[in-house]
Design goal:
single chain, mainly beta, three-stranded antiparallel sheet, 3 strands, 0% helix, elongated
């Protein structure tokens, strides 16, 4: 069984500047900052292959 990637989330609440989210796939609740950030590249910033 593979771990969930938490790709689909919804914000449940914000308290003291912390967002709490729930994964729509596995139903886990956690702080939004616990999600690993996904690198986003512009066309000019693509990593060399």
């Amino acid at each position: 069984m593979q771990p969930c990637s938490h790709a689909r989330t919804e914000i449940l609440a914000r308290r003291d500047g912390v967002d709490y989210v729930r994964c729509l796939d596995c139903d886990q609740v956690f702080e939004a900052e616990d999600l690993e950030s996904v690198p986003v590249y512009d066309e000019d910033d693509q990593p060399a292959a």
